[in-house]
Write a structure and sequence with these properties.
Length: 288
């Protein structure tokens, strides 16, 4: 609705903004229904340990099967969930389901779950995590929490305390999309974490871009110095994989191995790996 005819250039843009706001409102309404009906569910993408070729864990990536629009990407609805506060309920639901699914996977395979910075602000995150672990009967060391650098920007003592409490419980902390945030390295000293995930934008350029190579090398050496695991995200080619392995990267994740898949498929893959002899494990991980 046009506010004022005297601000002609503003009203020119308003119909478009209205349409966008309406689309968002529609997503919000549908998201509430999806949450209530528990139709959101995690898919899982394997994390492959490069020294052994073994799948050491899987990342839970939430999916929204929409009645008219097919599968909606989290990139589209997580921001809406964050704006509306729905992220807390969605996050708790994904966490519970991910812990339950992982509790039925063989061996010591871990599950990694993404948490929004907003989930750290509500104050009951520890209870949510402990509830999920207890509900699923999953040992805490099999859960990994993925956070992004934006969380650390706040330099909040409550956030630091929560991260310490999670770790004291045995939960591992991963720094997701590393290198894309406001990279002040000083937070690496005050925040406890166990893993750095190199953002896929660096990996994508790896094979023909010296700058990307220099950055990835620096992140690997930083991670090694800090004694944390280094994982490369978005690995799509053999060339990227061999470059990363030669540089000492510990773990990789990407379409080269597998995209995120429904739990039934992932569980089948993990059971297969469990029964395979060691030198067939890498082949089992590579199924795309
Ligand atoms: P992320 O945590 O960095 O997850 C990695 C994203 O990269 C996933 O996208 C994954 O499907 C995609 N990916 C993996 N391998 C490749 C590859 O080889 N090439 C390319 N081009 N892409 C690859 P997805 O599933 O669309 O998720 C996007 C983002 O949404 C995630 O980025 C994460 O930040 C967020 N997200 C997903 N699930 C959740 C959730 O349960 N809670 C929260 N708070 N955020 C979530
Ligand atoms: Mg992630
Ligand atoms: Mg990432
Ligand atoms: Mg991301």
């Amino acid at each position: 609705r046009a506010k004022n005819d005297s601000r002609g250039s503003f009203s020119f843009f308003e119909p478009g903004m209205d349409a966008r706001a309406q689309a968002r409102r529609k997503i919000e309404t549908e998201l509430r229904t999806a949450l209530r009906n528990e139709v959101l569910r995690p898919y899982y993408q394997p994390l492959v340990e490069l020294s052994s070729g073994r799948i050491s864990g899987c990342e839970a990536l939430v999916r929204w099967p929409h009645p008219d629009r097919g599968m909606i990407s989290p990139a589209e609805f997580i921001p809406v969930a964050e704006d509306t506060g729905l992220i807390n309920a969605i996050g708790a639901q994904v966490l519970r389901q991910a812990c339950l699914d992982a509790s039925r996977w063989p061996g010591d395979i871990r599950v990694a779950v993404n948490l929004s910075p907003l989930q750290f602000r509500v104050g009951n995150l520890m209870a949510t995590v402990m509830d999920a672990l207890k509900y699923a009967g999953l040992p805490p060391h099999r859960l990994e929490i993925e956070i992004t650098e934006t969380l650390l920007l706040e330099k909040s003592s409550q956030v630091i305390a929560t991260l310490h409490a999670l770790r004291a419980l045995g939960v591992r902390i991963s720094m997701d999309d590393f290198g894309t945030g406001y990279s002040s390295l000083s937070y690496l000293r005050s925040f406890p974490f166990d893993k750095i995930k190199i953002d896929q934008s660096f990996v994508r350029d790896l094979c023909n871009n010296r700058e990307a190579q220099a950055i990835v090398r620096a992140i690997i050496s930083l991670g090694m110095g800090l004694g944390v695991t280094i994982t490369a995200e978005g690995v799509e080619t053999e060339a990227e994989l061999s470059w990363l392995r030669a540089e000492g990267c510990h773990e990789a994740q990407g379409f080269l191995f597998s995209a995120a898949r429904p739990n039934e498929e992932i569980k089948g893959l993990l059971d297969l790996q469990q029964s395979a002899v060691p030198d067939q494990q890498f082949a089992a991980a590579r199924v795309a």
